[in-house]
TrEMBL record:
Protein name as it appears in the record: Histidine--tRNA ligase
Enzyme Commission number(s) of this protein: 6.1.1.21
Alphabetized CDD domains for the sequence: HisRS-like_core, HisRS_anticodon
Domain Aminoacyl-transfer RNA synthetases class-II family profile as annotated: residue spans: 32-324
Main location: cytoplasm
One annotated Gene Ontology cellular component of this protein: cytoplasm
Species this protein is from: Streptomyces purpureus
Cell location: Cytoplasm
GO molecular function: ATP binding; histidine-tRNA ligase activity
HAMAP family: His_tRNA_synth (MF_00127)
Native organism taxonomy: Bacteria, Bacillati, Actinomycetota, Actinomycetes, Kitasatosporales
């Protein structure tokens, strides 16, 4: 072991476990890639003000969880705590909203950083796959994103998750509700920090996890009763479209989410096998975010699914993804001459698109065959001096144990046929 360890709240992804992460990212992005979403990649850090303004000054993410730094040149940066603000910033900077039709549909995959109290399912470095549909107000778009996330989880084999759905209203009706809620909350017996929160972000108080707070919230005015007709009709259509797609959801009037920029549709995917870190993903509409970061009005909707928690959800449901062995053919050379010939064969196979590996470093047939077994390869090529003299290699099927001599120049063709 070296003197160093992975920093607190982080962990390394190493084979074979890491293959599951790749497969999860792939499964989450596949429905997006097949639905008109283009891949976007943005820097791992941004101007700190992008998040302060975009995510919201009063959110936990900005006040407590952000990794900030000042560069030698004096710039104030933050490691990105989430993806939406960066993606919207990048789309605006590239004028994507002016280039073609709207919405601009984008997907991303990457690492995010939050200074949190580490625990199972909560890390300081974690990964998300996300999607954003920028510049259109259409309930079908909200529905599309929810349906695609559901599809992603289903193709992974997950079933023990629920979709919570709510509407947070818009700039017509939310301020009226906000005031009514503040009036109610000011009359409660709450700690200092929560009292402060009433003034900055009262909706977040509804989200308080403490039982003594929840008890006092009984009878609080509910946003549902304040939604304007436009928001009501919009939400009703989102619900209808999701329902028609056969995607089950639960109405959750208290679902607020931790980011300030959400309007109208908000949703969360929760998994019932994960204990307190149960949210595997979430998202919603953010019609005001573009203007908050200095752009034009661009009503948008998006989500981010947590890869780490999705992997934990797979474990909770006992699902083992069917991940094919990375190597199809493993070559074992016995003797110097055979090394050269088989190494050349491996290079040739790789160029032909057949995943091949070579037994390095081992001494003796036994340790070579151990390497072959460990590789998971279906076929092994073995050659010694005598085989070479006859111009053949031994092709062994590791599953059936069958072995045949194949002429050296026919190896690629033979393997291609066998691998299908
Ligand atoms: P939570 O309520 O658990 O803190 P959140 O509301 O902060 O979650 P979002 O900002 O909506 O989460 O991020 C979307 C998804 O990213 C979450 O549902 C979760 O799967 C994942 N995620 C968020 N924070 C972390 C973290 N610290 N470690 C691992 N995954 C995380
Ligand atoms: Mg959080």
């Amino acid at each position: 072991m070296s003197t160093f360890k992975a920093p607190k709240g982080t962990y390394d992804l190493i084979p074979p476990y890491s293959a599951t992460y790749l497969a999860v990212r792939d499964a989450i992005s596949a429905p997006l890639r097949a639905s008109g979403y283009g891949y976007i990649e943005t820097p791992g850090f941004e101007d700190v003000d992008l998040f302060a303004r975009g995510v919201g000054e009063s959110t936990d993410i900005v006040t407590k969880e952000m990794y900030t730094l000042t560069t030698k040149g004096g710039a104030n940066l933050a490691l990105r705590p989430e993806g939406t603000a960066s993606v919207l910033r990048a789309a605006l900077e590239a004028n994507m909203h002016k280039a073609g039709g709207l919405p601009v549909k984008l997907w991303y995959s990457g690492s995010y950083y939050r200074y949190e109290r580490p625990q199972k399912g909560r890390y300081r470095h974690f990964s998300q796959v996300g999607a954003e549909a920028i510049g259109a107000e259409d309930p079908a778009l909200d529905a599309e994103l929810i349906i695609l996330a559901d599809q992603a989880y289903r193709t992974l084999g997950l079933s023990n998750f629920r979709i919570l759905l709510n509407s947070l209203g818009d700039k017509q009706c939310r301020p009226v509700y906000r005031e009514a809620l503040q009036g109610f909350l000011r009359g409660l017996d709450l700690d200092e920090e929560t009292v402060r929160r009433i003034e900055i972000n009262p909706l977040r108080v509804l989200d308080d996890k403490r039982a003594e707070v929840q008890k006092q919230l009984v009878g609080a005015p509910m946003l549902r009763d304040y939604l304007c007709d436009d928001c009501k009709a919009y939400h009703e259509e989102v619900r209808e479209l999701i329902g028609a797609a056969g995607v089950a959801f639960e109405d959750d009037e208290k679902l607020v989410r931790g980011l300030d920029y959400y309007t109208r549709t908000t949703f969360e995917f929760v998994h019932d096998g994960l204990g307190s870190q149960s949210a595997v993903g979430g998202g919603g509409r953010y019609d005001g975010l573009s203007e908050m970061i200095g752009g034009p009005a661009l009503p948008s909707v998006g989500w981010a699914l947590g890869v780490d928690r999705t992997v934990l959800a797979l474990q909770a449901e006992g699902i083992e993804l069917d991940i094919p062995a990375p190597t199809s053919v493993f070559a074992v050379a016995l003797g110097e001459e055979a090394r050269k010939v088989l190494f050349g064969k491996v290079t040739e196979l790789r160029k032909e698109g057949i995943a091949a590996d070579f037994s390095y470093g081992a001494k003796g047939l036994k340790s070579h065959m151990k390497n072959a077994n460990r590789s998971g390869a279906r076929f092994t090529l073995v050659a010694g001096e005598r085989d070479l003299a006859e111009g053949v290699v031994q092709l062994k099927d590791m599953e059936s144990g069958e072995q045949e001599a194949v002429a050296l120049e026919q190896v690629t063709e033979r393997l291609r046929a066998k691998l299908g």
